[in-house]
């Protein structure tokens, strides 16, 4: 749902930002911008949560690796080594339709695309004015 919502919201963001830059600001444009910022925030929040979970799993892996230093018997050492191998092989990554992963780079990519296309629309708008 996140990917589809982002795809639908992307042209709307471009139009509102372009209109607010070229036609000046009025109250309706300000309300539209605030509404789009909130919608974008709610759509991209799962990516932020997935990044936070990924960082927590890295902390768990570090804690389990530190346990190797204090293990005294072979059985507990083998169990900790199995846990470390499991955490290395099964890294937490949440993907949408196997196309893109939900992480912090998704947020930066969406913001970069919006910025790039807004600049391109403003540059091409001078040809038609």
Radius of gyration: 23 Å
Q: What's the overall geometry?
A: rod-shaped
DSSP strand tally:
2
- Strand % is under 5%
Write out the strand line-up for the largest beta sheet, numbering strands in chain order. Answer: 1-2
Helices and strands, in order, run as: HHHEEH
Biggest sheet layout: 2 strands, antiparallel
Structure description:
By secondary structure, the protein is mostly helical. It has one domain (2-91, 104-128). The chain is built from 4 helices and 2 strands, in the order H-H-H-E-E-H. It has helices at residues 2-22, 27-70, 74-89, 104-128, and strands at 95-96, 100-101. It has a two-stranded antiparallel ribbon. Helix 1 packs across helix 2 (27-70) and helix 2 runs antiparallel to helix 3 (74-89). The two termini are 38 Å apart. The mean pLDDT is 83.
Annotate the secondary structure layout.
Blueprint: H1 2-22, H2 27-70, H3 74-89, E1 95-96, E2 100-101, H4 104-128
Antiparallel strand pairs: 1-2
Helix pairs in contact: 1-2, 1-4, 2-3
Summarize the structure.
The chain has helices at 2-22, 27-70, 74-89, 104-128, and strands at residues 95-96, 100-101. By secondary structure, the protein is mostly helical. α1 (2-22) crosses α2 (27-70), α1 packs parallel to α4 (104-128) and α2 (27-70) runs antiparallel to α3.
């Amino acid at each position: 749902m996140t990917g589809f919502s982002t795809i639908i919201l992307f042209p709307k963001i471009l139009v509102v930002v372009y209109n607010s830059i070229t036609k000046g600001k009025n109250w309706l444009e300000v309300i539209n911008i605030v509404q789009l910022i909130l919608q974008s925030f709610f759509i991209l929040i799962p990516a932020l949560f997935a990044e936070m979970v990924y960082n927590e799993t890295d902390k768990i892996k570090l804690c389990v690796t530190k346990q190797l230093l204090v293990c005294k018997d072979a059985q507990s050492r083998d169990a900790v080594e199995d846990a470390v191998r499991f955490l290395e092989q099964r890294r937490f990554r949440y993907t949408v339709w196997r196309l893109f992963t939900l992480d912090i780079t998704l947020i930066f990519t969406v913001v970069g695309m919006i910025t790039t296309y807004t600049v391109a629309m403003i540059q091409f708008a001078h040809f038609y004015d």
